């Protein structure tokens, strides 16, 4: 009802903080008749990667967009080498070729985040062939299972497409055979109740949409997800609780 009052009155909508999953993008198109554009930035630097409203370029679901004009954004491997398209790595700013600003009194010393001429954001992404940036997850949120690197965003997006799921958060939990396994925390839609059968159904749902190594081997139904005041899911709290549970 609230959406109906503004449908057709918005030119474009912007979002940042958490990547937009396809279900949200479809909702905005259907209920508000307006595209919603994803953007990427940090408190320290502002918006560095955008689906620009004033520039003509393709807008692809799941993409944070293109580097802000004037910035040179790169993807680095663990050794600090720049990577090409379709190679996951850490998103970084080429300091010498970008308008980074330094606060008064800030010492430009080498740190884990600032080294070799780059500022590392701590987020895992990959470049697409068209030059846009696809977000995979915070570096510490990426799951390593049986040698595969799995971004929580793709798994969460697949889960949210199921009608039983209102919200989902995915983390890696320790496993002696696979290093980690994918575990999903799911907030159900009002008409559904958690059960082993539904957990299995959700796992198979993800497996069909992604791959055999990406589906959640464990599903826990919860009343709510831990979030920051701005609405970001605090996956690290879920991960910490799981580690402590397995130590007990």
Walk me through the structure.
With 248 residues, this protein is an alpha+beta fold. Helix content is 21%, strand content 32%. Strands 1, 2, 3, 4, 5, 6, 7, 8 and 9 form a 9-stranded mixed β-sheet that branches.
Order of helices and strands: HEHEEEEEEEEEEHEEHEH
Total count of strands: 14
**CATH class designation of the largest domain:** Mainly Beta
Shape descriptor reads globular
> Helicity, in percent?
10-25%
Distance between the termini: 48 Å
Approximate strand percentage: 25-35%
* Structural class estimated from helices and strands: alpha+beta
Q: State the major sheet.
A: 9 strands, mixed
Q: Kindly state the mean pLDDT as a whole number?
A: 88
Low-confidence segments, given as residue ranges, are none
The CATH superfamily of the largest domain is identified as Luciferase, Domain 3
CATH architectural type of the largest domain = Roll
As a whole number of angstroms, the C-alpha radius of gyration is 19 Å
Number of domains: 2
Number of helices: 5
What's the CATH topology label of the largest domain? Luciferase, domain 3
